[in-house]
What we know:
The structure holds two protein chains of two kinds.
Chain A lengths: L32 E3 L5 E3 L4 H18 L1 H9 L3 H25 L6 H9 L1 H36 L10 H18 L4 H27 L18 H10 L19 H31 L1 H7 L3 H46 L18 H17 L2 H28 L14 H17 L3 H21 L10
Antiparallel strand pairs in A: 1-2
Helix pairs in contact in A: 1-7, 1-9, 1-11, 2-8, 2-10, 3-8, 3-9, 3-13, 3-14, 4-5, 4-13, 5-6, 5-11, 5-12, 5-13, 5-15, 6-11, 6-12, 7-9, 7-11, 9-10, 9-11, 10-11, 11-12, 13-14, 13-15
Chain B lengths: L11 E7 L8 H7 L3 E9 L6 H25 L4 E8 L2 H12 L3 E4 L8 E6 L5 H12 L5 E8 L7 H14 L7 E7 L3 H8 L5 E5 L5 H6 L2 H8 L4 E4 L7
Parallel strand pairs in B: 1-2, 1-4, 2-3, 5-6, 5-8, 6-7, 8-9
Antiparallel strand pairs in B: 4-9
Helix pairs in contact in B: 4-5, 6-8
Amino acid sequence: xxxxxxxxxxENANRTGEAPATVIDPSAEADEASVTESGTELERSIGxxxxxSVGVGTMxxxxxxxxxxxxxxxxGPAAAGSFAIGAVIALLVALPASxxxxxxxxxxxxxxxxxxxLGALPGxxxxxxxxLGLVFATAFYLVGFGNYAAAVLAEAGVSLGGSGVVVPLALxxxxxxxxxxxxxxxxxxxxxxxxVGLLLTILVIFLxxxxxDALGVFGSASTPEQFMPFGPVPMFTTAALVxxxxxxxxxxxxIAGDIKNPGRNLPVAMVGSVLIVGVLYVTTIFxxxxxxxxxxxxxxxxxxxxxVARAFAGRFGAIAILLAGLLATVSSANxxxxxxxxxxxxxxxxxxxxxxxxxxxxxxxxxxxxxxxxGGPTLVLIALGEVEVLAEVASFLHLVxxxxxxxxLVVMRRDEPEWYDPDFRVPAYPLIAIPGAxxxxxxxxxxxxASQIIGVAIMLAAAGxxxxxxxxxxxxxxx
Amino acid sequence: MTDDLTIxxxxxxxxxxxxxxxxxxxETLVDFLAPAEIVVLGYHVLPEQxxxxxASMQFEERAQAAVDDVxxxxxxxxxxxxxxxxxxxDRDQTVARVAAEVDATATLLPNPAGEIxxxxxxxxxxxxxxxxxxxxxxxxxxxxxxxxxxxxxxxxGDFDIEAAVADARETLRERGVxxxxxxxxxxASDRPxxxxxxxxxxxxxxxxxxxxxxxxxxxxxDESERVAEGAIAPVLIVRERHDEA
Lengths: 479, 245
């Protein structure tokens, strides 16, 4: 594999002569601030709550507000097991990602580890395809928002002419979110914390009440249904379907450069966010299948959870869950826009994309080019439709990155460079990283053929771009 | 200048400046502060969606140049100055960190200043009198600037404000501040912060302690910062002595 040690000797520059920028002096890394080579201090100001809110905020949407009906239809009550399997696989990747992030606490996350451990070509493929993957995911979340917003309007008795309002609502909100990030003097990330906090509050109340009800504390216990009506195999194939709802914990690492005390906060935020959403997902399925039985649940489709809430608390419950759905999709979309801009910055800083992409404007202090490279294509995709296929492509591209993160851990550990000094070390790392890589690549096999083809095409295009534009750039082992 | 032997600990002042927004210090304030050791911290606050690393790539040189300009003003007034440059999402966190790292005696909260003739030393509660006196004596020593020590605290008997003011006066005298420029006052007040802000137009510089982290500072932010926001004059916040062990 070409590791990026270009034939041009010490050139190390892309087609237009831009070289990777070395900003931070790796010897001056501290818990509270990094120091650049010319002595400027870069404050680390995002705490554990901020990190958790990026992880939970990105993930929380799909598992509760899209999948319960679909998963119960495929696996019966064992869908709860499918979500548990997903959580285990996510943990197998979150642990290696945590170790690499504490060794390299810089903006860019998965792209950064892979480019430093495996070289510029795999780095460029992951970096560019994650940019596009995040754009697809953002479009998917915004359409989800449009669906929930339309349902809220319908519930409130406002008629805007049927299903035609979903795309316009998604577009309007996409413009609003991008604008908030572009011009926001108020911190978009702080807003994110509040959105996630409110969402978790609603969900915990709903799930707490639902659990007590399902266990028979109020009224009669629900009829026990056979746990695996279709046998054990659908539990595993359903796990592949619902793994989409665990994409996002690695986004915590994209803000690693701004996280306080990264040695502790990065692992806790990544592993913690997987555990939090895992528990919420499994509980949701348990309650939903207890309330209705999986056949009825399946018939409600993607908004099954709203019907569950209606069964518990009438119209009020339905409205509360619709509101939670709005918050969940907004927080996922916003977290993805933020991650996109960081991903673009990390790749362009390394001269794999033109460095103009990391320009920012002084007036608003925001990275306007990178934000536009996230928000712009997102709006186009929403307007064109077809976002559901693209959502699976986004999963495909994330899974490739997750698998390579595990490979990167194995590579780093087998031949530890001098600079490699993570604060957090995965215990028995081969037993975590190797199954993590196999599971990540294995899930790709369960995807639709169309998604696989589009995903591979994007990766090939990214590799082609690297060969054309930046084949002399070398990144392996360069901190 | 005062006799150096009377100053126990040469005061070190942290001067934070929002460099990229063109903030500068009034010349009169530079002259007033110059007898102390100076650390200029040029900082730029970014929204959280912007990585600090990204901002530093583009604006680092500009920020360093702006800080050097501020430092140069102090050097003209006869001081060598330490400079720091920081990109941050949280101004208070950065100022507190740098103040602790350089072990600053006091932090400046800049406000516009004219000629500096009247200095208010506001005492609201327990304060490190030695540090306070070292600072004030270094800055006003040998000039004819007037110093008013004003004790302003709730009249609930928890704290002997009269004794604290007398102690501060005595320590200032020991450090070489002449009796004829020193005035003392004591007032009972349930809202000392608001009262200090109200009187800020009578003075050219305010010196005060950090204050305790009570309920109101949780709700409304640090008391001393509320003074700085409301006050017309620059404020010097004397830091608590943190045990360096």
